[in-house]
Every structure is written in C-alpha cells, then in structure tokens.
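A protein record in our archive is deliberately plain, so that people and models can read it alike. The record that follows is passed on verbatim for readers who wish to inspect the format.
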Amino acid sequence: MIQLENVKKVYPNGSQALKGVSIHIKKGEFVFIIGSSGSGKSTLIKLLLKELDPTEGKITINGIDTTNLARNEIPYLRRNLGVVFQDFRLLPNKTVYENVAFAMRVIEAPSRIIRRNVPTVLSLVGLQKKLRAYPNQLSGGEQQRTALARAIVNNPPILIADEPTGNLDPDTAWGIMNLLEDINSRGTTVVVATHAKDIVDAMQKRVITLKKGVIIRDVEKGGYDNEA
C-alpha cells in the first residue's frame, strides 16, 4: 500500500532530513509516525503527499511509483489520498457542505453523487446539523471534523493526518482519533503524524519513531515511550 525503499532527502542547504528510510505499510493498517522536532517526520509526510521529491530511493503508493511522477500526474495520485492538516485548511467563504462538496467537484463527480455522498459523510462525523455553517461559526473540533469529512468523501484508500489534534483540547482530540479509528475499521489505511503522547500510548497501534532522519523504532502495538 505504502512503501519507501532507502529514501533519502537532502535539502539545498545540505541538511539531511531523511537518511535511508525504508517503511512498508500494509493495506488497512493504522500507523503513528512520531519523533521530536527535526526528526524528519514532516519531510516524510511531504514526500508521501508528493509535495517534495526524494533525493534518493523509491516511494510507491497504492501501486504507483511516485518517485519520478510527472507533475501533471500528481493530481491523479492525490485522488488516492485523503489528507487532514493541523490547521484545517478550510475555504472560509464556503459552508461546511460546500467545503466537503468541493473535494468531489475537483474530481468532477456528478452532482447527484455529490448530493448523496456529502450529507452521508457529514452524518458520519456528526455534522449533519452544520451543513450551512461557515468555518468561522464552528469550534476547532467542528472545523477538524469538516476537514476529515472532506478528506474521506471520495473514499480514498489512504488517509494521511498531519498533527490532526495539534490545535484541539484533549476531549475534542479524542473525538477526532475515534473517528480516525472508525474510518480505519472500514478498511482505509491511516497514517498519523503526531506529538500526542497520551493518544499514542492509549491506542496501541503500530508506532514508527524517527530521530535525526533515521527510524529508531518500528513497533506493533507500541507507545510514545518507545522513542526513549
């Protein structure tokens, strides 16, 4: 599903963000990526999203070799990826319904499918009563749930969440993580980059720990303490 083979990333200033990282994530897995600032975690996520290219190595996502993908092919790759960010990245001038529908319009989904799927996915994340609300009328948790609905409305096989609970209070953060676990239980592969120690320790999923560009731990049913 996701495979990195000896991936290295060196920035133009000579900084080595990743130093020969190899990871294999199987279909249907739930994986936490953890590590302190400067560990290479953000670089890894950007490589998966094809926002960056590796300096060396090979990346395969859902059967697609993304290493030398042409720029005009990247949008098609990203159709296989649902993405949730720490800062929500909602369109401020669009309602909750319109924000989620926008993701379907980008892939030119028929209007009848949009009208059917958007309310369904908003009900899944508990926002069926917020269809007409704008982002500035929502709490942080509601904004993140809107972002999550947008990420999954096209039923992508892979969901990548970059610090999805970073701006949320603990109770709201757990609500988001429970939704991610529910989505995973339906067959979606979920990869979460996070600093949320309590969540990682409690959920006991696979934990991959990065330190200074190297994988130092890869543990099934691990915890954040494995970084020590």
In short: Strands lie at 2-10, 16-25, 30-34, 56-61, 64-65, 81-85, 158-162, 189-193, 206-211, 214-219. The longest strand covers residues 16-25. Helices lie at 41-48, 74-78, 96-106, 111-124, 140-152, 170-185, 197-203.
